[in-house]
Specification:
The structure is a homodimer. Chain A is of the alpha+beta class. Chain A has nine helices and 24 strands.
Chain lengths: ~400, ~400
């Protein structure tokens, strides 16, 4: 083997040449152990990744669980690993008896079964959902050990349902209609007020996720989906739409999900999630097995439209390179970025920053603190860095 | 309520106005029954759809199970419902000990761990996989009761992995290399010969499916993926790539997966899956709840590139209307089509036909029989119709 070939060979960690291939190739195969076909499949028992949960010890059904972004590939979040944020548990709803009621400032109040909703013209659209609190721990200096705990209140799915505008047209809005108050069937009747412009733009009533019925934790059998807006407003277990002239000023849009200013005042109804990104591989708790070629990969997204570019720095922010974006790049959907890198074995930090089609550039943490003060944890989208040590281990910077 | 409004109201099956909304709205909510957060979620217990399995009673691990297309939405097939076709069971492979060996007509034979493969630059691409036998029952007149049994050997996923060309470049192909023989680690060592042009074009070594690791039934931890080609050639549980000057003429590319001609001769290496489509809703075993607006929806695909149009007939083939295609329409990926229809309550047949970007139009069953004879069941892609009876029930035409 020439020296060049040998370097190439070692670069990918290949340990054996042909001579010993036959010894090494066979995986352990035990045809007697082959499972019979399963009606509904499951993952390999060797796969252990899970959502990172944080449940309240005081109230049943209050808490969150985060998508393990560091273990995932591509752009789709497996439904089993979609993040959760519940305010009063997951109601066990029978779709046969579930109804969506549409009333208020409409000419014809309507009540729909799930089957009624499925007769409407439908659309399928990939979109992310991000909790307004995602990344907020980074602002206040919590050193999240991994991408799940730093940015895992973000997931991305292919959603299918009816445009809310189609259903509102069936009921005929009255001229005074300015807000749609969406209420869930969970125990706390979680409610949010949606401006009529969003309701008539791209809002969806969603009954399917990644090809099959919604999962219980994402609102089965029906949820609101507001592409690009903070997740809390995409009301789950949707059972009521009340069309009104004024917002409800509900608990979840006044006591929470508001942007605190240094003055002590807060902005309400700040729905849009701004451009953000996070490197998921390599990221916290992972280890690069040695110097050589490594792919840096992560997710970028913007609530304002498409990601136009992602830049990656592998030298602690001194220089930036343009990452490749996986096609198709879709509006208000997570985009996978990638950069082929050659790690020289020296300690460094790796960072990513996203620019969206409006020209908006993801800010640094310092810029966010300068603009909003140190306590405004909702809608945090600062540039995230991971530290790589000489032994290849990756940790929060 | 005016007469026009009343018609609109009834058209969507809405049964109640506002006065009784409060009685009807609440779903049964029992917060005490709310599950604690699950590390890896599952579907609602009300959801029962499953793969339609057919296993050999004589040989362990031989058989197929079909995707229940009639119950699905959008374009992604949930991994738990991806079709299966096994020739010797599902090997339970430990990814830590699995190796891919690349040898034959290359300058540097290589052996890769899964971690080695993940260090290469990767890509994520949505593609369908279709078994060459999909739809063949339609040719020979089996009246499949539902879309699973007529067309369910088709699934569509977001796949992530390394381009095969990248890995071949690391080993450096010799000038005499014309075929890559891919072998699986299942008990029968299923093997297929891949022309080098496809290997260097869009072939992938895939380790992830719909965001997470491949499922065992789809080749965990590594499979070949040949976009647009018959599924059997996308070898699962991939452990060996042998680069050669001639094909292997393996069992699965000579005794099976060949196209029989009326003369008794057969074509081998006919890999490409031609344009096809199937209406999945309404389809066999479903029932339209009554006259009025109904969405006709289904899937279309082509192994040659993008779907350019889908036409739907709701009058037994007398006239055709252009269906809407869900964006983005991707090459060698399933495309969802939709047509808003108003069912008048009369018996009829509904059909779909796909044209791909090469201008190829999906043929009728009669055209296929005229061209290939009545026994050539592989690569069947005839236009599929469903019969709607006066009571709204749908069956195979």
């Amino acid at each position: 083997m020439t020296s060049r070939k040998r370097r190439q060979f070692l670069a990918f960690g290949a340990t054996l040449g042909l001579a010993s291939c036959n010894k090494e190739t066979p995986a352990k195969v035990d045809s007697a152990a082959a499972p019979t076909m399963r009606p509904y499949g499951d993952r390999s028992p060797f796969e252990k990744t899970k959502r990172a949960a944080r449940e309240s010890t005081k109230s049943i059904g209050v808490g969150s669980s985060r998508t393990p972004l560091q273990d995932l590939y591509g752009t789709i979040t497996p439904s089993a690993l979609h993040f959760e944020r519940h305010h009063a548990g997951v109601p066990p709803i029978d779709p046969a008896t579930h109804r969506l009621v549409l009333h208020g400032l409409v000419d014809t109040p309507l009540s729909f079964t799930m089957e009624d909703l499925r007769r409407f013209p439908s659309v399928t659209r990939p979109h992310f959902i991000e909790c307004a609190g995602n990344g907020g721990g980074e602002l206040v200096g919590n050193a999240a050990p991994d991408a799940a705990r730093s940015h895992g209140l973000l997931s991305n799915s292919e959603w299918t349902g009816v445009k809310l505008s189609t259903v509102l047209a069936a009921a005929k809005l009255q001229p005074t209609a300015k807000w749609v108050i969406a209420e869930g069937a969970d125990a706390c009747r979680m409610a949010r007020s949606i401006p009529i412009a969003k309701a008539l733009d791209d809002a969806l009533l969603v009954y399917a996720q990644n090809g099959e019925a919604l999962r219980p934790e994402q609102g089965y059998p029906l949820r609101l989906l507001l592409p690009g807006w903070e997740g809390n407003a995409s009301v789950k277990w949707l059972h009521r739409l009340h069309v009104a002239a004024e917002p409800a000023l509900s608990y979840e849009e006044t006591a929470h999900y508001t942007d605190l200013h240094p003055t002590g005042k807060a902005t309400i109804f700040s729905f849009e999630m701004e451009a953000s990104s996070v490197i998921t591989r390599p990221s916290g708790t992972q280890k690069i097995s040695g110097p050589g070629p490594v792919e840096i990969s992560g997710l970028a997204w913007s609530g304002r439209g498409k990601v136009s570019k992602v830049e990656v720095s592998a030298d602690s922010g001194k220089s930036w390179q343009l990452a490749t974006l996986d096609e198709p790049v879709l509006s208000k959907a997570a985009t996978r970025f990638r950069l082929a890198w050659n790690w020289d074995g020296q300690p460094t930090s790796i960072l990513s920053r996203c620019t969206d089609e409006t020209g908006y550039l993801q800010p640094t943490r310092d810029e966010i603190i300068a603009a909003r003060g140190p306590n405004s944890t909702y809608h945090y989208n600062g540039v995230k860095s991971w530290l790589i040590a000489a032994d290849g281990s990756v940790s929060n910077a």
